[in-house]
Amino acid sequence: MPHTDSTPVLRADGLTKRYGRRPALTDCHLDIPRGRVIGLVGPNGAGKSTLLQLACGLITPTSGTLEVLGSRPATNATQLARVAFVAQDTPVYAALTVADHLRMGARLNPSWDAGLATRRIGQIGLDPRQKAGRLSGGQRAQLALTLAVAKRPELLIFDEPAAALDPLARDGFLHNLMAFVAELGASALLSSHLLADVERVCDHLIVLAGSRVQVAGDVRDLLASHHRLVAPGGGPDRLPAGVEVDRLPAGIEVDRLPAGIEVIRVEQTDRGHSLVVRSDGPRPAGPWSVESLRLEELVLSYLSRAADVSAAGSRTMAGEAAR
Ligand SMILES: Nc1ncnc2c1ncn2[C@@H]1O[C@H](COP(=O)(O)OP(=O)(O)OP(=O)(O)O)[C@@H](O)[C@H]1O
């Protein structure tokens, strides 16, 4: 059931979070429609957990604003009931049984779906009498996921939900997640290092690196606007016009590419050089072949560009310190 409410699920404006002087998120702008499954990807320390914790109101921004489902996060009980969060370590109460957790969920959540919770516990084979402290990491994750889903929230937030699950359990979890989102028109925001999972379930993407949003958007739009340009015949002397080998990869100056093309990454492959570019207009025509990208290649291109920028920044700082 598609969501008809036009309020964005997530809207960030200049969102910045610092821990002391350390930036965890810097000047983030996001505007994501409802009913999406949003994949949040990025390297360790990129700021993913920070964004998720801001979205469920566990922490507050240093500056800028964040609205979740049209309101500031966790401002009142109604807003709290609309959002479910499963933290990275999938916390449960060790001394309580699985059944105790379901009873607690029923007490704490106004729209608790007891049938869904019991059914899911049965499907994943958890013994209701088992103490949560005796569950394996994967079983604990499944219990935490069940509690989140049975709350019937409008937005599910998961910090690396599938990390502790075996491949079969992960497959089942992702399947259930998609079914739940489709049935209720709910939205989901999940961080993951598993790009194959993101590719499978997400229709919206946020790539974070170095505390900044590198790219964000609808997955189909992103795939349509990004291409790989491959020089005919390959070889360093057969690059697209304007790209000079001795200026790669840092400080890329691609001054003779058509206007409106942003170079994301220059790669040297066994076929020679290729460029990953963004072109929001028509496919960039020129003396090169144009190939489509897989989502994983697109993500890696942005991460690699961010890593180059960060390394260049560190070299500049080291140079200044040495002077
Ligand atoms: N409570 C905290 N106090 C101080 N610094 C923090 C705190 N939480 C996070 N940070 C710092 O903020 C930055 C972003 O951390 P965050 O946990 O959001 O990254 P992440 O993308 O979720 O990483 P990972 O993939 O490793 O979980 C890191 O540099 C981290 O060290």
UniProtKB/TrEMBL annotation:
The keyword Nucleotide-binding applies. The keyword Nucleotide-binding applies. One of its GO terms (molecular function) is ATP binding. SMART domains: AAA. Gene3D superfamilies: P-loop containing nucleotide triphosphate hydrolases (3.40.50.300). Residues 10-235 form the ABC transporter domain. It holds the Pfam family ABC_tran. Keywords: ATP-binding, Nucleotide-binding, Transport. Belongs to the ABC transporter superfamily. This is ABC transporter ATP-binding protein. It comes from Plantactinospora alkalitolerans.
